[in-house]
Each structure stands twice: as structure tokens, then as C-alpha cells.
Amino acid sequence: MKKSSAFTLIELLIVICIIGILAAAIILNFSGARERQQLSILADKSVAMLQVAQQDVRSGKYDSAAGQYFCEGALFAEEAEPLFVTMPYDTATGACAFDAVIEENYGLGTAPAVVETITVGSGDVEELYALYVPPDAEFVFYDSSGTAQSGDGLITFTSGGGTEPYSISLNLSAFTGIAALTLTE
Predict the structure, then answer these.
(1) Residue 6 lies in a domain
(2) What is the distance between the alpha carbons of residues 40 and 167, in angstroms, rounded to a whole number?
(3) Of 32, 49, 138, 144, which has the highest C-beta tally within 10 A?
(4) Integer Cα distance of 41 and 56 in angstroms
(5) How many domains does the chain contain in total?
(6) Looking at the domain assignment, is residue 44 inside a domain?
(7) Could you check whether the bond before residue 88 is cis, i.e. omega within 30 degrees of 0?
(8) Contact at 8 Å (CB) between 50 and 174?
């Protein structure tokens, strides 16, 4: 009687288990990469919003029909995506008109990546307007009531959906008006 060279049931089960373990590891790795990508898009989108706002205000964006300049920037709120904001600038008072703010989504949606924490100076806030104000495109922070905040800003974005939370911090300098990203895992 000749012995067959086929696989046994045990050997097949071991191979199937190994393939299953490798597939699970690959799937987890790809989901982490997707979360990091969403987080990176959100942070990059925030920097882009601020750059566009700065350029608009520096170039003297003006509505000739209404006879007014505009404050522009971003609204950061905890557990939400940042919004691009525009509001009229009152040249008589030298203030942005928070009662006439226009909020817009900017670019691609990146859920589940959102703003986790917002810090200005030494205190935490739930909402922060980071605005460029005419005529010199001065970079100023305001809380949700329109009160100016002093100090530099730190916005932390997180990807809340996965097994490993990732975060990126956006450092905003009130002195220079520059935004810098820092990856923190």
C-alpha cells in the first residue's frame, strides 16, 4: 500500500489560522493608516484655511457694495471639525462683527477626526476663533462671545474612532501669525 502525500486536517487548520492572524494584522494596520490620514487631512485643512484667510485679509478683501472689509479665519470647537469663518469688519470701532459671522465647511469631511482640546495662553476653551483682522492682517484669538484672548493657541486634533488614538497638535502663534503642526502618538 502506497502512502499518500496529502495534507492532514490538522495541518490545514494550522495554515488557515496563520492566514487569519496575518489578515487581522493587515486589516488593523490599514485602519490605523486610514485614521492617521484623516487626522492629517484635518490638520492640513486647518492650516490651509488660515493661510487663505491671511492672504484674503492682507490683500484687502473688500465688499464695495456693502462698503466693508472682512475678518477671516477659522472656528475651532471641541468634538467638531474646524469651520472657515468670515465676518464684517467695522472700521469705526476696529472690531469684527461676531453677530454677522458666516461659517463654511472647508474642503473634505474627515470624520471621525475632530478637535479634541483647545488651549489659549494657559487656559482651555471650548470654542476659539482664530482670525486675521484688517487692516494689517493681525492674528487674534477670540472666544465664543467675541472676547479677545491673549497668548498662543494650541489645537489638538484626534482620531477618535480606532483602537489606537492618534493626535496632531496645531500650534498657533499670536505673535507671528504662524501655524505649525506636531504629530503626537
Answers:
(1) no
(2) 9
(3) 49
(4) 22
(5) 1
(6) yes
(7) no
(8) no
